[in-house]
Design goal:
With 313 residues, this protein is α+β, with helices and mostly antiparallel strands. It has one domain. It contains 7 helices and 11 strands. An 11-stranded antiparallel β-sheet has the order 1-5-6-7-8-9-10-11-2-3-4. β10 and β11 form a beta hairpin. α1 runs parallel beside α5. The longest helix is centred in the middle third of the chain and has 12 residues. The two termini are 37 Å apart.
């Protein structure tokens, strides 16, 4: 149950943006957005509700991950684990060729591990690393392959949890019944809006794409007690001005109670390949602490490149 709960919470973080990160080694140094110095948003007849509705009702972000099945591509995955002093004590590097030219094949081009990565039984030391391997590297993820059988709960998750994962990842702001969190993910409800500021600005993404940056952040004048009770500290969504496609999401989350503590930031970015929008970069920084387990500290940099669409896909 703890493992499933960790999957659910981790997966709620798959949003993108540009804010403060945990102060330690950060593998991500790519700058992707530049904000305009002068912006005339009013002339474009937009308001906060426009962006909220787009975030809640968008389906294209999820579809971008599904569209990967029609492409062959290279994935480079760097994972770092840390000790209590934030010094790196484990490293994982994978360069993987995902081949969809026929029956799906995954080929390891480079596979390097150093430090305290695995248990004696061959499983990862940290649940965080194991879950990200499941989600991003597809080591056990049958859902990556079209028409693959659903996981049966043994070594995977059942359909109920998959549905919750999809909601948490791709539909931020919607209610999700995650244990001990309750309605804290519903940041667009009337009750939760009193705790947040909502704003949007104009900018340029990847040096050429005109975008809006929609930012939801905790109000700075809240009491410390109230701030501590708000789980999502910041949510940023990047919209393509030309078609309102979502090109990126960022989330900053922090919460503590008697059962667990976490402090995490995650970023996902998309790029255009022909007529499709596909994931290009995922970054993560996070600390987890829950009963009877060693505190987990990790960061990730996952880059997808060399997309090639395959015939008949």
């Amino acid at each position: 149950m703890k493992r499933i709960f960790l999957v659910l919470i981790l997966s709620s973080l798959f949003y993108t943006g540009f804010a403060q990160e945990i102060q330690r080694f950060n593998p991500d140094t790519i700058k992707t957005i530049t904000l305009d110095s002068t912006v005339n948003i009013k002339a474009e007849k937009l308001n906060i509700e426009t962006f909220i509705n787009k975030v809640i009702n968008d389906t294209s972000f999820y579809q971008s991950f599904r569209d990967m099945k029609r492409y062959s591509f290279i994935a480079e995955n760097r994972i770092y684990s840390y000790d209590k002093k934030n010094k790196v004590d484990g490293k994982i590097y994978r360069k993987i060729k995902h081949n969809n030219s026929g029956p799906y094949k995954m080929e390891y081009l480079v596979k390097q591990d150093t430090g305290k990565i695995y248990k004696k039984n061959g499983k990862y030391q940290l649940y965080t690393v194991e879950m990200f391997d499941y989600i991003f590297m597809n080591a056990y993820n049958t859902d990556f392959v079209p028409n693959a059988p659903a996981a049966d709960g043994k070594g995977g998750t059942n359909e109920s949890y998959k549905d919750k994962l999809k909601t948490l990842i791709f539909n931020p702001g919607r209610p999700v019944k995650v244990p001990f969190i309750g309605s804290k993910t519903e940041i667009f409800t009337a009750n939760m809006r009193q705790y947040y500021d909502y704003a949007f600005t104009s900018g340029t993404y990847l040096d050429s794409i005109p975008v809006y940056r929609f930012k939801v952040s905790v109000k700075p004048d809240l009491s410390s007690w109230t701030k501590d009770g708000v789980m999502i500290k910041e949510l940023v969504t990047i919209f393509d001005k030309r078609n309102f496609n979502i090109l990126g999401r960022y989330v900053d989350m922090k919460y503590s109670n008697m059962l667990f503590d976490f402090d995490v930031q995650m970023n996902i970015e998309m790029g255009y390949f022909g007529d499709d929008k596909l994931p290009t970069k995922i970054t993560y920084q996070g600390n987890w602490d829950y009963p009877f387990k060693k505190e987990e500290r990790a960061s990730f940099l996952i880059v997808h490149k060399d997309y090639k669409i395959e015939k008949g896909k």
